[in-house]
Amino acid sequence: MTRFQTGQFCRSFRVSATLLVLTAACRGSEPGVVRGEMIFDACSPCHGDDGAGKQSLGAPAIAGASDWYLSAQLAKFRAGQRGYHHTDAEGLRMRPMSRALIEDKGDVSSVVDYVVSLPIPDPPATAEGDAEAGEEEYTALCSNCHGGDGRGVDTGVLELNAPSLLHLNDWYITSSLQKYRDGARGVGDAAGATMRAPVSGMSDERIENVTAYVMTMQRLPRKIAAPPAPPLPPLDVDPAILPEGVTVAMAQEGQEIFNGAVGICFTCHLREGGGGPLAPDLTDDVWLNIDGEYESIVNIVMTGVPQPVEHPGQMQPRAGRPLTDEQVRAVSAYVFTLSR
Fold this sequence. Notes:
Layout: H1 8-25, H2 33-40, H3 44-47, H4 67-79, H5 89-99, H6 107-117, H7 131-141, H8 143-146, H9 170-182, H10 190-199, H11 204-214, H12 248-258, H13 266-269, H14 294-303, H15 325-338
């Protein structure tokens, strides 16, 4: 795994940088780019004056990132959803920095506004992986969320968004994938659970290959928000096919959970369960891990699929989401109807 400088410099820098943030926050400027530029004085020693990152400190390029992504990551650092693992030196360094931002003074939105105003970097490719092999991996495991062009997806619904990869340095992409794989990142949040599934068990070589392929893409970091998905068709269910205790209303609720931000099941199984590179088709009568009966579906949603039979997508218990028992039974009712 990539290692970055830590030690006395980082400890002393953290103290002085936090003081800079607090000083900027107390100057009384209104929220916005001007205030954000003052606050960014505390960010630039790691991320660079231009926001293009510094490999020696493991600080990524943040110029070029979408405003929703920057805001979400700062929120995760502040909440302890990032920077929680003892091996994540870079995250542990960032976590207290994020907590120095004063929310009710508009510090988060201000510094995000300033970073978004910076020119978008175009980092050089240095990864030595096999880009051709990486293309196959990327298409199968990454394109469903980040898009075939790597420019990400902005749906307007945070849980369904995926960031652009095209402003990032290859060393950071590699390091991030390794952290997701090893559990140093992505535990306890929906997007993290979605990211961890495809990289679980991935070797360093395969990660390097994916990284090398991403660096071959045309560098277009920002894009117009994707159009919303069409409405789901009404679920027409014959009550006679449902097991005892399962109702049409449960299946209809499950349809919304499966295909939306609550359950995010569609990110692997695709919309309405048609299946894809990461996870199997749920609309046919072929069951790979269970017998397809209702209680078996409930159990596998509850416990997850740590070792899939055919597809590479590892399913977390309850899809890595805070689903209640009732929601699990509802989404299982929907899945039960898909092949009947």
